[in-house]
Write a structure and sequence with these properties.
With 412 residues, the protein is mostly helical. The protein is 81% helix and 0% strand.
Length: 412
């Protein structure tokens, strides 16, 4: 069997860890920074931070096109350099307007970089271990999500210095760029322009930016992105206002990350055997149980029958859901990514990667907008019941349509 953990694969995973560590280092504290430094209100903070996601989403399809049409390592290095430099831009942004501009533009290289780095990871993997390797690749972002927010909160608690956090993010991103610079991507994989399919450029069309062959997988992923968009953005305020849990957000994300990591490790064998639809099915059902537990247990705890044990039910629902949602997403995401890539030719891998990321981003964005609107008019409990309903709809769509859609269109 071909070796999975070759030096280039380890390097690209290390760089991916650095990329997401720098990203998650600032994520939990930027609302506080905007409020304390610029006196921004909650709605303004939401608008400022949403610009990053919107720009990343706009760059995704073009990133896939460039990764598939130009030397992949060159695209990777340029996008990583831009991603790192923008952290220094936060240091220079002395007004809310300047910060908004920098933050919004920063989403562009992030969107390009995540596509380029994951595509290079696929290229350096031996073909016989690709499904398994893509699953393990996600461990690097999961570890970053588990460690970086807690580390950032600790640094801020000790120093109350946002500038130090910006410098740390810049240094860590630069380290990732240096690691990626040492990766050897040989032959056709190093320079897509050497491939016969690239010598005669195809006319620009939708399939150069979005993998049309996998459109239903993309729609299905929107449902799951919607759920995590609501949960990740409104978790802290829901926990505080409805559940009475303060300071538990970091613990929730830590437990979610543990679930993600465990599922990646446990699911590696199934991915190696090519059991993509099995992994996807398992992950979606586990996630659905997690989302249901999250909203159901506090509801039961608030009823008269369970009043005496309300805090126990609330804690089980809150923290138990974190592990289950992590386990579920950790099985589902690499399975869907492998399914999308299995429906693409070699010179469409970047497009396939960007397609699955675009679908997730669209779902996340819709979740953030819809979740806020529903919470404003009907309350956070209704918003999270909507999440459970959306997740259940995504599961039904997969079993009724998407699974057979994939099996009929995958490229052997």
């Amino acid at each position: 069997m071909e070796r999975l953990w070759n030096k280039n694969y380890i390097k690209v995973m290390t760089a991916n860890f650095s990329l997401f560590f720098a990203f998650y280092l600032l994520t939990p504290l930027l609302p506080l920074y905007l409020s304390e430094t610029f006196g921004a209100t909650k709605d303004v903070i939401g608008l400022v931070l949403s610009g990053y996601t919107i720009t990343a989403l706009l760059f995704r399809p073009f990133s896939g096109y460039f990764v598939d049409s130009f030397p992949r390592k060159q695209v990777l290095m340029v996008s990583f350099a831009a991603f790192a430099i923008f952290f220094a831009g936060y240091l220079a942004a002395g007004t809310l307007l300047l910060f908004t501009i920098v933050r919004t533009l920063h989403g562009g290289p992030f969107g390009a970089l995540t596509v380029a780095n994951s595509t290079v990871a696929i290229d350096v993997l031996p073909s016989s271990r690709r499904n398994e390797g893509i699953g393990y690749y996600g461990l690097s972002n999961n570890l970053a999500m588990a460690i970086a927010p807690t580390f950032a909160i600790f640094v801020y608690a000790e120093t109350h210095n946002f500038q130090l956090l910006f410098w740390l993010a810049f240094a860590i991103a630069t380290f990732g760029w240096i690691v990626d610079a040492t990766i050897e991507v040989k032959g056709k994989k190093a320079d897509v322009s050497h491939q016969p399919t690239a010598i005669k450029p195809r006319k620009l069309s939708l399939d150069r930016f979005f993998l049309k062959n996998g459109w239903l997988l993309g729609i299905n992923m929107v449902f799951f992105g919607f759920c995590f968009g609501v949960l990740s953005n409104y978790l802290a305020i829901y926990g505080k206002q409805v559940m009475g849990i303060t300071g538990g957000t970091g613990t929730w994300f830590m437990l979610c990350s543990i679930g993600l990591i465990l599922s990646r490790l446990q699911g590696g064998k199934a991915l190696r055997k090519g059991l993509l639809t099995h992994n996807a099915s398992e992950g979606m059902v586990i996630s659905l149980v997690g989302y249901t537990l999250f909203i159901l247990m506090p509801t039961l705890g608030g009823s008269k029958f369970f009043t005496l044990h309300s805090s126990l039910f609330t804690s089980i629902g809150y923290y138990g859901s974190a592990i289950l949602i992590g386990l579920g997403n950790g099985h589902m995401w690499p399975a869907f990514q492998n399914m999308m890539i299995s429906m693409a030719h070699h010179n469409e891998r970047g497009t396939a990667n960007s397609t699955i990321l675009i679908s997730w981003d669209i779902g996340m964005g819709l979740g953030i907008l819809a979740g806020g609107a529903i919470a404003e008019h009907f309350g956070y409990t209704t918003a999270f019941w909507t999440v459970t309903a959306m997740n259940a709809t995504g599961v039904l769509l997969y079993f009724l349509k998407t699974r057979q859609f994939f099996l009929a269109r995958r490229i052997e």
